[in-house]
Write a structure and sequence with these properties.
By secondary structure, the protein is of the alpha+beta class. It has helices spanning 10-33, 70-102, and strands at residues 35-40, 45-50, 55-60. Strand 1 (35-40) and strand 2 (45-50) form a beta hairpin. It is rod-shaped, with a radius of gyration of 21 Å.
Length: 112
């Protein structure tokens, strides 16, 4: 129930919504700056992405490079990038999940 049994205080609701929007924007900015890693092949290939999923770096150990077998190297690269993106998605859920729940359980377009 609302105080006084009447309508919710619209000004208070608006202020809460604006604060949540600012918090969400701040969390998204933090995600864009935070880097997470993923690896494959026991560390032969390492990928770094931002919390927002932007690929920032790719490191390939020379041991992973075999001119006769480029398919395996390609698979390792894909696996490392996928692992990094999985870690970025986990970070997104940690940072944005509580904010999204505060807005009624979810925000359309976000991956949770």
């Amino acid at each position: 129930m609302f105080p006084g049994g009447g309508q919710p205080n619209m000004q208070q609701l608006l202020q809460q919504a604006q604060k949540m929007q600012r918090d969400l924007q701040r969390a998204q900015e933090e995600l864009a700056q935070t880097e997470v890693d993923g690896q494959a092949g026991g560390g032969l290939v390492k990928a770094t992405v931002t919390g927002a999923g932007e690929l920032r770096a790719l490191k390939i150990d020379p041991k992973a490079v075999d001119p006769e077998d480029t398919e395996t190297l390609a698979d390792l690269i894909v696996a490392a990038v996928k692992a990094a993106n999985d870690n970025a998605q986990t970070l997104q859920q940690q940072k944005l999940g509580p904010l999204a729940q505060g807005l009624g359980g979810g925000i359309p377009g976000l991956p949770f």
